[in-house]
UniProtKB/TrEMBL annotation:
Pfam families noted in UniProt: PI-PLC_cat (PF26178)
Name of protein: Phospholipase
SUPFAM superfamilies hit by this protein: PLC-like phosphodiesterases (SSF51695), Ricin B-like lectins (SSF50370)
Any Gene Ontology biological process: lipid metabolic process
Signal peptide stretch: 1-28
PANTHER family tied to this protein: PLC-LIKE PHOSPHODIESTERASE, PTHR13593
Keyword Signal found: yes
PROSITE patterns listed in its UniProt record: TAT
Keywords assigned: Signal
Organism taxonomic ancestry: Bacteria, Bacillati, Actinomycetota, Actinomycetes, Kitasatosporales
Length: 455
């Protein structure tokens, strides 16, 4: 069970108070003394002490020996592991290791690269803390190294406890400053229709239909669309043997009708998409009024200028954003891309953490790392671009949506978001995706996150 946040704050404050040495005047751009994650700008993973070896690990809050206290040491800096007094992030030969903080091998010169990124340099040598090069068909190696000043030697020093700012007034909030309650597998509710083969349908992810979800304040909907002879159908894994499933266009119509009745609301749909683009276009064409509310960030300069104010989107009636997890390259081979009819490719506009915290029973894994980090893909949660910050989808659910487990997990949603996932992504979650949103008061976490902005 993760350590309570209050204890973490107390420990961090105590460590910060113990720092008395002033920062060297030649390195004024270095962050203030205090608790940090040393986070690869390439992978988004954190430097962690593993029995003396320093490895990149999945961000895990105050667990897994990933927190370091930055302080000045003469004309250089050291990073002391908060779990082991006197043990600092250092090096031995070409390998990163924890060493005695008094050792010359613990000292680093820290220089700013821009975009809040830094290099950690060995004093007197052109050698830097770095991530290992990625072998073909594999992830970057876990063990951190000391090597050349390549792009792999760029790091974020992410505060353990960042300074937040009050949320702007409602008419000034940009879309990427707002958090929305999101229903994982919103269609798998056992109310609107069938969603899975026998036995699987005994464990729905939600217990209320789409219309009730909308009435309850759900504003993000995760839908699995499969292709059958009837078109795009909402089913879990497969539509085989599913009794009375719901067509995709039917649930989208429910959402569009809700938006017509509620002109100040904004909704986002996430498609787990197993449908040919032509079939998807035909299904969406059946939705009456979709074009009136469909938001097209690809046509409004968002990548150059950032996300607009939510109030401006509402005023323009741009109030339904649809994402697909499908591959653009796969669609290009067919000659029809989904964004030509208003469905955005999610990996181009968002970041998302791995979808599961574990099985429906037993212990959970609270680590927060990219869903799109593997041998063939590297989209870290920390990804950002000049003038544009991707929206952050935070998944908080298990393999199986057991109600008792979901109820307990949902009470811990704000804590995981603040201590684990916000520092992992260096941004506030925009979509909190849960099973059984009506249990454990997940909405309270949304309310909490909507009181402040992350720097």
């Amino acid at each position: 069970m993760p350590t309570p946040r209050s204890a973490l704050l107390t420990a961090t404050a105590a460590l910060a108070a113990a720092v008395v040495a002033p920062a060297p005047t030649a390195s004024a751009a270095v962050p203030a003394a205090g608790g940090y994650y040393v986070q690869s700008a390439t992978t988004g993973l954190n430097a962690a002490d593993n029995g003396g070896a320093v490895e990149q690990r999945r961000p895990k809050g105050n667990e897994d020996r990933q927190q370091w206290t930055l302080r000045a040491s003469g004309s250089s800096y050291v990073l002391e592991n908060t779990d082991t007094a006197g043990s600092c992030l250092g090096r031995s030969g070409d390998q990163a290791r924890t060493v005695a903080c008094t050792s010359a091998d613990a000292a680093w010169e820290i220089t700013e690269l821009g975009a809040d990124r830094y290099r950690l340099k060995v004093p007197g040598a052109e050698r830097f803390l770095t991530v290992g090069a990625k072998p073909s068909g594999a992830n970057h190696p876990a063990r951190l190294a000391v090597g050349s000043a390549s792009g792999l030697a760029a790091w974020y020093l992410t505060p353990v406890t960042p300074a937040t700012s009050p949320m702007p007034p409602a008419n000034e909030r940009t879309l990427d400053q707002v958090t929305f309650l999101t229903a994982h597998n919103a269609y798998a509710n056992g109310v609107d229709g069938g969603f899975a083969p026998p036995f699987v349908n005994l464990v729905p992810n939600q217990s209320r239909g789409i219309n009730q979800q909308l009435a309850d304040g759900v504003r993000g909907f995760m839908l699995d669309a499969h292709q059958t002879s009837d078109g795009a159908i909402l089913c879990h894994n497969s539509c085989t043997l599913v009794s009375n499933p719901v067509a995709l266009w039917v649930d989208i119509q429910r959402i569009v009708d809700f938006l017509k009745r509620n002109p100040n609301e904004f909704v986002t749909v996430f498609l787990e998409d197993y449908v040919d683009p032509g079939v998807l276009r035909s299904e969406l064409a059946r939705v009456s009024g979709l074009s009136d509310v469909l938001y097209r960030p690809d046509q409004t300069g968002v990548r150059q200028n950032g996300w607009p104010r939510l109030a401006d989107l509402i005023s323009a009636n741009d109030r339904l954003l649809i994402f697909t997890d499908h591959s653009r390259s796969a669609d290009q081979s067919t000659g029809l891309t989904r964004d030509t009819f208003g469905v955005m490719y999610q990996r181009e506009w968002t970041v998302e953490n791995y979808w599961s915290m574990g099985s429906g029973l037993g212990t959970s894994d609270w680590s927060c790392y990219s869903r799109w980090y593997d041998a063939g893909t590297n989209i870290p949660l920390t990804r950002t671009e000049t003038g544009f910050r991707p929206l952050f989808v935070m998944n908080h659910f298990r393999d199986v949506g057991i109600t008792s487990t979901a109820s307990t997990d949902n009470t811990k949603l704000a804590d995981r978001a603040q201590r684990f996932c916000m520092p992992a992504a260096r941004k506030k979650p925009n979509f909190l995706a849960v099973d059984h949103y009506n249990l454990g008061n997940a909405a309270s976490a949304v309310t909490t996150l909507n009181t402040y902005t992350y720097p």
